[in-house]
Amino acid sequence: MSTPPRVPERPDRSVRPERTDRVERPDPAALRRRAAAVLTGLDPAAVELGAAFAEAGHELALVGGPVRDAFLGRASTDLDFATSATPDETERILAAWGDAHWDIGRAFGTIGARRHARRGRRGPDGTTEGASADVVVEVTTYRTEAYDATSRKPEVVFGDTLDGDLSRRDFTVNAMAVRLPDLTFVDPFGGLEDLAAGVLRTPVEAVQSFDDDPLRMMRAARFAAQLGFTVADDVRAAIEGMASRIEIVSAERVRDELTKLLLAKDPRPGLEVMVETGLADHVLPELPALRLEIDEHHRHKDVYQHSLTVLAQAIALETGTHDEPTGPVPGPDLVLRLAALLHDIGKPATRRFEPGGGVSFHHHEVVGAKMAARRLKALHFDKDTVKAVARLTELHLRFHGYGDGQWTDSAVRRYVTDAGPLLERLHRLTRSDCTTRNRRKAQRLSGAYDDLEQRIAELREAEELASIRPDLDGEQIMQVLGLRPGPEVGRAYRWLLELRMEHGPQTPEAAADALRAWWAEQQDA
């Protein structure tokens, strides 16, 4: 394809939200050149789809994230389109264009399709020409949608113009489109200028936009994290005034936005938007609750800021890269990030001012584990995620006893066994939790954890720590003690596991002798 998209100039806006950072942004002209490079590389099958809709008398436009990403220099594999065709008409066109099509949400006007890769022709020099990858598309009829004040589901009404469809989008940077097949750029709300400035604004009044779909408030926080954009003043003010309306949205939709936010390269800006606007009070209230009052003697650190720092440090310890995750904790790792953010949420409930001016948070890890589990369940996270985050929260302080004195091999075994498959994440959470500015203390803690990891490695090599089991199995226990299956076998198994933890591996004979002696004591008792 050789025809570049036609991207008209737009006049400068007289009023723009002020930028508070010093991030250098490309000018709109540079973004146009970048988008042209991406869009001219759009798969020919997508352009053919535009021609098919035009031939049937309908409009088709590439919309939303794929257009925004083109201006950011990113190509999208899944393509979102808007059309003037009805869902039934869309389905007929897609059935003829693609190799498969499906009903994604007919009530919402969305039909999906896939066109398989074309092999292409082999040229005289042996190379293949004209080959393409699979093209997956979602095509949605122009629409408007809004929440009823008492409903958790949006009401959908189909529209008849592209500009009207774009007006219902969440932010101007997502309200740009490219008409197909002629690749004409459409930007009725100044999204290109906002993209260049790094500002999140709504196509219509922010209050109206968030009233239509309260989830857009969460998207503002998510895009602040994903794109590194600031939130326009009127958008921020609208969130502050309407934050409680997020409660009308289903927990699953809120959870999905929070997950995308946390999996961004830098979640901090998005979390700050949530906390500063009051949105977090209704989504993740344990986070703003960490902003404990700093007493005049500064007897404890700001737990909220500490938690954000721990999150950033944990992300830095994920293995591989954000785009190419590899290693024992490939990033972005949702469990590690949730645990880093929530590890201290038990502190407000357990804070005590001690005689002499000290502050304590006794058992905050146990309280915090229960709080984390309750919050994640309320957000409908899956059971494995809830269990893992709660367990990491509960274990995050365990290491601090290591520096007070040399752990026995038994203590090291218990640390590994209690962490189980979460051990690599626990390593990173524990290291990230050191945010002291005292360089000597930081070096001491880091050295102590280096030593602990070395001992774990040595014991693992000698004893296969990851699969610690008693030296006798259930059948052998029943044979040694002359028991039938029942609770006594379980008690004996657990006692042998404790013996294994405390003294390391033993021969079957020695384990049997110790088991007989223990059992005799139980009978005497």
Helix-strand layout with pairing:
Elements: H1 28-39, H2 44-55, E1 60-63, H3 65-71, E2 78-83, H4 87-97, E3 100-105, E4 110-115, E5 121-122, E6 128-129, E7 135-141, E8 143-147, E9 154-158, H5 162-167, E10 177-180, E11 184-186, H6 191-197, E12 199-200, H7 206-212, H8 215-227, E13 230-231, H9 233-242, H10 251-262, H11 268-277, H12 280-283, H13 303-316, H14 334-342, H15 347-350, E14 352-353, E15 359-360, H16 364-378, H17 383-395, H18 409-419, H19 423-432, H20 439-463, H21 474-481, H22 487-503, H23 508-524
Parallel strand pairs: 2-7, 12-13
Antiparallel strand pairs: 1-2, 1-10, 3-4, 4-7, 5-6, 8-9, 10-11, 14-15
Question: Can you offer a commentary on this structure?
Answer:
The chain has 525 residues and is of the alpha+beta class. It contains 23 helices and 15 strands. The protein has three domains: 1-200, 2-Layer Sandwich (Beta Polymerase, domain 2); 284-467, Hypothetical protein af1432 (Orthogonal Bundle), CATH 1.10.3210; 474-524, no CATH class. Helix content is 48%, strand content 11%. Helix 18 (409-419) crosses helix 20 (439-463). The chain is elongated. Mean pLDDT is 85; it is low at 1-23 and 295-299.
